[in-house]
């Protein structure tokens, strides 16, 4: 069908007297344009004719037709010619300015639709055409309120589409809007407030100053009408939300007026003041700091505001906490006597609660004070007679608990300042023990439970009860064991809730309550709830039989936690009942996957905790488990039971091993890890029959390949375990040349791809094999040497040398012979190949680390001759060998190396590498003995002009300083005053190595030196600056307690290093191209890496708002690696400071949008560019997933739109997966 025919057909239908025809014609036209925009494009006269018909239908008498015409215009606007756009806009403006109310409403809707969908290229022109007319209409006193509201909405859309053009209009838009603040209609004033707030961010400073001077400040006067004062307060709050950077400088001038207004006896004014204070706390955190106590006091005063019932006003807060139960009874009685549907005082209490929530969420440094002043008041309001206020109070307390979990201390394992292995001192916590947030919380638990549990016992809506249990979940997460004294009451509340039937409205309540019970059983001693077990288990059993999968899943999880807590269970009908229900679920094919997984976990816990009960039931559960289509769960159960103290018979072990072997064959890479671990547990029992051991051993051979490194390590570990446990059966198979085991593993040992855990597994295999059969040594070592020689340069002689050394440690009898054979390859007249020499040197080094070679002194001399070899690989191997041989006898060999450092410039760098081996691998006792010998020659190299020499020396100096800090740290730091950048760089590198040691043994000596070396962050030399930042990073990661007290001075300097410094950007001519070099990139990158470390280890000492500002700068950096760091920090901040981050989502939006745009491919684009862009987008998407969880409805409209677009686009599935994983 041709375009002309279609247009003609639609035109005829649009002129039809039948409203259905007109409607369908518009609908068809809309759908066709959406599908294929070219259907409308062709002959201009035909287009104009169709457009004219659509415009006439905008004036149709039938509402459905008019609305469809507006929708059609929205699609047409995207493809119209300029002249047609003008026609549409002129027509709609004429209708909008008319006197017909209905047509004006439709025209307003159409204008909003057109302005939203008009192409970017013509939106500016449309703005200059529509804007002045709308502004003129707004100035007309006779304009109806409805038209004013529509006009403001249209201008707000234009402001988002064409902000530059809209601010240049005449008359000035904000000035026009300000006049509307005096309108007699409340709706107009509120819409004007919102529109002014939207325009202020893009307006000139004088525009905001005019609003402030002409309207806001005059509204604080005592004679000003209340409605104007309300409007002014609301305007301040709106501007705070959209343009805090403009409002910030004058906050101090505005707050007195707000505090004065809140004292007026007007509920709406009080509510508006509190809402504005909340916005100021969230959006202007620095500026409101001087008045923060006043804001808190206002929140505390008005959270109790209830003029119609004020029984608590005469009591002080201590009495409220002690008598909370009695007060609550009084509240309940008064509520029965008093009922007033017009009472709006609850809005004031709710707004004041939100003010306190904002303070709590953004001021972690005030936690102790908040617990002392705010927490008691919040607890006293747990029983507020208005349900919405009560839930808001609970939500606020949840925020307080979350903040305590992140910033308050170490209880519950959630201390972000904790570093593995470090010993924290009380004085480093920066708070007295008795005043810590956790201790203050602990002291208030009794009062809290008294009020909260009474509320949960009462007949509250499901949503309220759910909020109460969520609060309890947060409480015991932060303070495990907190409810021990209230266990019977808590379980009684839970029982009461779970006794209700499961319906659509109560499902979430049931799952939350069950989640709470599971956590309660995990975090509280069994003695605190033993007496309540028999009363709570019947309702749990009922929940486990529910059809709703989520409820049943959580019930099974609660039983698992209960079994683990009360183990052992020797009697009790409930254990048998849950066993039967779990078996029933596992036996059915229609069981939900989550329910099945939870039932499997219960079976494992039953066997571990209630063995006497389940062991007599016939074993039906094992059959059901092994038949499951999802074997991972069954593997975990078998592993749990097999690894416990439960004695299982040999038949069970045999069946389980056979079944797990089958799973290993079938599973992909993901499932094999668990299967191998389970197999190890079963094998270690020592009861596997010989034929099955043979089968396992033979099957393992197929996994001895580098195709899957992770599985390779596990297969080798299992093989080593078999050799250790079933030596007589496994050894002959492995050693049999026909089996090929030794050849395969020797090949693996020579592969450079084998490293880390996998290499350790290879070494363990050889050690175990030789321990089982020492005679095999004479076969293994030549075999490994041959494999290494065959591999040549493609092999890894280092790996082979480690394996040979491990063999010899297990069989020391062959050490002398092996050394003799290896020495032949390094003799002066040897004809050995380079690969043989390298392998011999490395092996001698590995052996020499534990063997004294002083009786074979010629070996050391032969090694040293290779310091002058032409081959770099040989020279490196010689340095490695000589250093490690020195460890075997430092008194004989080390002086020769030291003499070489002092006298032989050509071989100095290799001698330094040898010393580094000594320092790195010596035992602590040995190192103390040689420190004096090597310190001076190493220290003398700190000013060496060769950077490589300095780097090697600094690594050794750092380790020695850690061994004897009292003697050496002072000498190091004295060199920081040296004018030479090279010396300072060496000292900084040495200190960085010193800081790698996380033990606290020498913290007292190191602490006074921290300010001195950190002062070099301002050094003029770029390399020194970067090394100082790197040293600070090491200190932040390993010894945060040493730098915490200096962070207040350090952070401004660190933040300064994150800035892009234009004077360090150089343009280098490279023939016809110009290459841009950023010499400050490395220092900037190190600064951001240090910020990331500080976020993990010194969170409580950071100013989150200032930190966040620099993170937002980082995601806009021109270097991708810095952007990635920025997104990583943004994701982390969304977890630890959600309230602060949620307020600034729109600030991050431009960079988020820029990153997530499709990469533009040009002729110069290479594969690496695309890979880097993809990595950056994945990092950005992870940050977006975290941010999407904390956004507040309406607070960041731009981010909401962006997120919706992402969810419906190609990133939707990955974003959903990231949300679920985070």
Note down, in words, how this protein is organized.
The structure is a single chain. The chain has about 1200 residues and is an all-alpha fold. Among the domains are: about 1-120, Leucine-rich Repeat Variant (Alpha Horseshoe), CATH 1.25.10.10; about 925-1005, no CATH class; about 1105-1220. The chain is built from 65 helices and 2 strands. It has a two-stranded antiparallel ribbon with strand order 1-2. A hairpin with a 2-residue loop joins strand 1 (about 1065-1070) and strand 2. The longest helix is centred in the C-terminal third of the chain and has 22 residues, at about 1165-1190. It is globular, with a radius of gyration of 38 Å. Belongs to the CAND family. InterPro entries: ARM-like, ARM-type_fold, CAND1/CAND2, TATA-bd_TIP120. Pfam families: TIP120. Keywords: Repeat, Ubl conjugation pathway. One of its GO terms (biological process) is SCF complex assembly.
Key features of this structure:
single chain, about 1200 residues, mainly alpha, Leucine-rich Repeat Variant, two-stranded antiparallel ribbon, 65 helices, 2 strands, about 70% helix, ARM-like
């Amino acid at each position: 069908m041709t375009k002309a025919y279609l247009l003609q057909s639609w035109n005829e239908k649009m002129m039809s007297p039948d409203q259905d025809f007109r409607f369908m014609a518009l609908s068809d036209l809309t759908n066709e344009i959406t599908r294929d925009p070219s259907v409308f494009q062709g002959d201009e006269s035909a287009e104009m004719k169709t457009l004219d018909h659509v415009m006439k239908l905008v004036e149709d008498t039938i509402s459905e037709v008019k609305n469809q015409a507006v929708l059609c215009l929205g699609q047409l606007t995207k493809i119209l010619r300029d002249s047609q756009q003008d026609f549409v806009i002129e027509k709609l403006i004429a209708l909008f300015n008319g006197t017909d109310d209905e047509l004006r409403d439709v025209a307003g809707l159409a204008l909003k639709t057109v302005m939203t969908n008009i192409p970017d290229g013509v939106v500016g022109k449309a703005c200059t055409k529509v804007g002045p007319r709308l502004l003129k209409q707004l100035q007309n006193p006779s304009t109806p309120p409805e038209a004013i509201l529509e006009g403001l909405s249209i201008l707000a859309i234009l402001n988002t589409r064409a902000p530059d053009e809209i601010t240049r209009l005449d008359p000035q838009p904000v000035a026009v809007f300000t006049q509307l603040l005096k309108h007699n209609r409340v709706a107009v004033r509120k819409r004007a407030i919102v529109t002014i707030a939207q325009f202020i961010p893009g307006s000139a400073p004088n525009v905001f100053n005019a609003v402030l001077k002409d309207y806001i400040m005059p509204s604080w006067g005592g004679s000003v009408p209340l409605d104007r004062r309300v409007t002014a307060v609301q305007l301040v709050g709106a501007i705070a939300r959209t343009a805090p950077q403009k409002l910030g400088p004058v906050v101090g001038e505005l707050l007195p007026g707000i505090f004065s207004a809140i004292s007026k006896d007007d509920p709406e004014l009080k509510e508006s003041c509190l809402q504005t204070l909340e916005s100021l706390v969230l959006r202007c955190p620095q500026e409101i700091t001087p008045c923060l106590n006043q804001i808190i006091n206002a929140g505390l005063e008005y959270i109790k505001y209830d003029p119609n019932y004020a029984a608590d006003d005469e009591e002080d807060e201590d009495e409220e906490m002690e008598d909370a139960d009695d007060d609550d009874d009084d509240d309940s009685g008064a509520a029965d006597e008093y009922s007033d549907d017009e009472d709006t005082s609850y809005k004031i209490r709710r707004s004041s609660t939100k003010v306190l929530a904002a303070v709590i969420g953004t001021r972690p440094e005030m936690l102790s004070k908040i617990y002392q002043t705010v927490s008691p008041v919040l607890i006293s309001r747990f029983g507020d007679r208005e349900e919405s206020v009560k839930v808001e109070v609970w939500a606020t307390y949840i925020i307080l608990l979350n903040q305590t979990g992140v910033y308050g201390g170490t209880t519950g394992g959630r201390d972000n300042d904790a570093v593995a292995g470090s010993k924290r001192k009380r004085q480093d916590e920066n708070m007295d023990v008795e005043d810590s947030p956790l201790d203050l919380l602990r002291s208030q638990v009794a009062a809290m439970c008294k009020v909260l549990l009474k509320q949960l016992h009462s007949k509250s809506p499901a949503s309220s009860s759910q909020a109460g249990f969520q609060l309890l979940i947060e409480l015991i997460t932060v303070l495990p064991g907190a409810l021990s004294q209230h266990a019977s009451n808590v379980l009684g509340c839970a029982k009461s809730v779970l006794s209700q039937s499961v319906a659509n409205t109560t499902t979430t309540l049931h799952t939350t309550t069950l989640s709470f019970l599971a956590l309660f059983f995990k975090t509280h001693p069994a003695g605190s709830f033993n007496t309540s077990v028999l009363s709570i288990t019947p309702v749990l059993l009922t929940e486990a039989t529910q059809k709703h999968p989520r409820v049943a899943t959580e019930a099974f999880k609660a039983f698992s936690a209960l079994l683990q807590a009360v183990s052992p269970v020797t009697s009790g009908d409930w254990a048998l009942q849950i066993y039967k229900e779990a078996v029933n679920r596992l036996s059915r094919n229609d069981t939900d996957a989550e329910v099945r997984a939870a039932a499997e976990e219960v079976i494992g816990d039953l066997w571990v905790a209630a063995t006497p009960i389940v062991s007599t039931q016939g074993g039906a559960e094992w059959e059901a488990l092994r038949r499951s289509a999802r074997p991972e769960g069954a593997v975990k159960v078998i592993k749990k039971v097999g690894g416990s103290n439960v004695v299982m018979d040999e038949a069970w072990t045999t069946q389980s091993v056979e079944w797990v072997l089958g799973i290993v064959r079938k599973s992909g890479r993901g499932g094999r890890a668990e299967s191998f671990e389970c197999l190890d547990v079963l094998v270690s029992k020592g009861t596997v029959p010989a034929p099955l051991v043979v089968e396992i051993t033979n099957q393992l051979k197929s996994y001895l390949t580098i195709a899957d490194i992770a599985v390779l390590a596990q297969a080798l570990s299992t093989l080593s375990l078999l050799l250790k446990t079933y030596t007589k059966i496994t050894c002959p198979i492995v050693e049999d040349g026909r089996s090929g085991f030794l050849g395969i593993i020797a090949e693996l040992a020579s592969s450079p791809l084998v490293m880390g855990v996998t290499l350790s597994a290879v070494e363990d295999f050889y050690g175990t094999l030789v321990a089982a059969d020492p005679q095999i040594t004479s076969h293994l070592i030549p075999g490994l040497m041959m494999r290494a020689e065959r591999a040549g340069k493609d092999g890894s002689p280092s790996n082979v040398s480690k394996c040979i050394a491990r063999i010899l440690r297990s069989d020391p009898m062959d050490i002398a012979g092996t050394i003799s054979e290896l020495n032949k390859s390094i003799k002066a007249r040897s004809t050995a190949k380079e690969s043989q020499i390298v392998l011999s040197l490395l092996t001698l080094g590995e052996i020499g680390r534990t063997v004294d070679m002083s009786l074979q002194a010629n070996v050391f001399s032969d090694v040293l001759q290779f310091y002058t070899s032409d081959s770099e690989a040989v020279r490196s191997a010689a340095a490695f060998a000589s250093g490690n041989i020195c460890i075997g006898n430092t008194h004989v060999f080390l002086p020769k190396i030291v003499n070489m450092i002092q006298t032989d410039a050509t071989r100095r760098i290799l001698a330094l590498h040898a010393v580094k081996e000594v320092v790195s691998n010596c035992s602590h006792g040995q190192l103390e003995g040689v420190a004096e010998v090597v310190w001076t020659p190493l220290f003398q190299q700190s000013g060496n002009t060769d950077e490589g020499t300095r780097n090697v020396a600094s690594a050794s100096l750092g380790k020695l300083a850690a061994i004897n800090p009292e003697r050496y740290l002072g000498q190091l730091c004295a060199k920081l005053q040296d004018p030479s950048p090279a010396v300072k760089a060496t000292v900084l590198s040495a200190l960085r190595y010193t800081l790698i040691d996380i033990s606290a043994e020498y913290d007292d000596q190191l602490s006074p030196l921290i300010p001195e070396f950190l002062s070099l962050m301002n050094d003029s030399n770029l390399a020194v600056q970067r090394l100082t930042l790197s040293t600070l990073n090491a200190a932040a990661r390993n010894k945060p307690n040493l730098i915490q007290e200096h962070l207040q001075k350090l952070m401004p300097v660190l933040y300064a290093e994150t800035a892009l410094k234009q004077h360090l950007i150089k343009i280098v001519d490279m023939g016809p191209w110009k290459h841009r070099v950023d010499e400050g990139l490395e220092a900037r990158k190190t600064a951001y890496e240090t910020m990331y470390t500080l976020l993990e280890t010194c969170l409580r000492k950071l100013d989150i708002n200032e930190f966040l500002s620099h993170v937002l700068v980082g995601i806009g950096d021109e270097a991708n690696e810095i952007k990635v760091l920025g997104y990583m920090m943004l994701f982390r901040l969304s977890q630890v400071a959600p309230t602060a981050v949620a307020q600034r989502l729109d600030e991050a939006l431009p960079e988020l949008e820029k990153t997530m745009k499709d990469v533009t491919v040009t002729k110069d684009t290479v594969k690496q560019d695309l890979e880097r862009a993809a990595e950056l987008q994945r990092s950005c998407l992870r940050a977006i997933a975290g941010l999407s969880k904390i956004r507040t409805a309406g607070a960041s409209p731009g981010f909401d739109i962006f997120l919706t677009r992402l969810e419906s686009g190609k990133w939707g599935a990955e974003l959903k997966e990231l949300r679920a994983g985070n």
